[in-house]
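G.,

No rush on this.
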Amino acid sequence: MIKIEQLLINDAKKKLVDISLSIENSLALVGESGSGKSLTLKAILGMIPKNLDYSLKMNSDFQRGKEISIVVQNPFTALSAMTNIDKHFEVDKKKKDELMKLVGLDKSYLKRYPSELSGGQLQRVVIALALEANPKLLLLDEPTTALDAKTKIDILNMIKTLQKDLKFKILYVTHDIESVRVLCDKIAIIKSGKIVENGKIVDILTNPSQEYTKSLIEANFKNRGFRS
């Protein structure tokens, strides 16, 4: 289990984030814009803006960039447009081929440029790059926002399979509650930098205790006919 024992983030006027989290397998951190989701990811990666103060205590001393990797929201901006896929990797040819195979892409894609790939293909490349360091913890920052519905489900199912095979933990940051059912077994709801409720996905989605959580669920499933 990976534990964020305490994360505190402050600006000059107030406390922005004050949370603790346990990631047993796959945890979704869900909240509206400005709730503290992105700041949490930045703190784990050591990328908090200089105008903010923060402290982070974890039960493991991870080497950022080696044992923690991130898959970002927009694959179109995650890669250098002037560099072919092959040159984005820092491992040898055999490992590159293996990584591409893991994400369902033929090694011939290594010779292509980002502009020659679809959004789903680009996100698969970004995931392959994130797996390059054999992470213990994979951070997902809204990784399917730029994708169509079918591609989104395909990518989430692929990540779920990769997690099972490669044994990494997942912290999935999103406002899309519908998608967390595909990937995660537990969920934490964040509001104004605080965790207001957490537990198993099915328990929170079918019987939320907070009005804030109910409003998030209603917003997500208003036109989708949610069923547990």
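When you get to it, here's the other one too:
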Amino acid sequence: MTAHLCAIICSEGKCTIMNNQAYVYKRTLIVVVIAQLFGGAGLAAGLTVGALLAQSMVQGEALAGLPVALITLGSALAAFLIGRMSQRLGRRVGLSLGFLAGFVGAIGILVAAVLHSIWLLWMMLFLYGAGTASNLQARYAGTDLATEKQRATAVSIALVSTTFGAVLGPNLVDVMGDFAASVGIPPLAGPFILAALAYGLAGLTLFIFLRPDPFLLAQSLLDSKEQKNAAYEAKPMQKGVVVGAMVMILTQIIMVAIMTMTPVHMEHHGHSLREIGLVISIHVGAMYLPSLFTGILVDRLGRTVMVVSSAITLLGAGLLAAFTLQTRYLD
């Protein structure tokens, strides 16, 4: 398999595995970047108006936070299934099917909005979460063939590319709302038209162009005895996975809680969909744009230093927001 995939041939007629790995790594990263551009638009467009759509359908705010909760739960389950499928069949199949499920979920949300079926909306939001899971996991496809010193940077490049789609998506909610109204769909469901298109294009991009599959190729390279030994010695790093997961869970809880209620809070104060989309796009841009630098810093300074730095940054941001609001209300 490796011999078939080699791109550079030595004068002796043998494959130069490292050169081939570097070639496929760069090609894979380009495909991942393109898919992330589409996936980011689908992710952000839906999250921007999910709470508002639910609020309008149930005529109240009690369930406004449920859409993001369902998307998150669906994403968690899909992440497990996509991971298992990718382990057996490769990234190409697993990620493409995840985006396909997200596409179906977005279409289902449109149908639920037209029929004004709240139960169908809940089910389709759960399915829509599969697109979120694929979008999050796709960035790691770029690390399969990366060297140890390239992994964090590869993830950063994918994250930065997500920014462009994720910033564009919320800024189109007003336009998509007008388009939806013109074809008989509730305006708040309009962004899910964009989400369906974006997830569909992301899935097609990976299914067509993610060849050779980076995960399967990386597995084939483990035929080398030295690489087998390296993989075996890396198993104690599982403790780091637990720590990393806990960091992500805590930061995700904080981010999702604030991001979910921001559109509802802004609507109470009379802001338009365009203004809400702008705020969400700024938020998403601030999430992803610095990742290019943080990835490089992780490769150079280490993961522990950056985790501590991120905790200090989050704490500072939270305190700043809290005291700013307090000062405003006192005035």
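The CA atoms of residues 105 and 128 lie 4 Å apart. The chain has one domain: 14-289.

Enjoy the weekend,
O.
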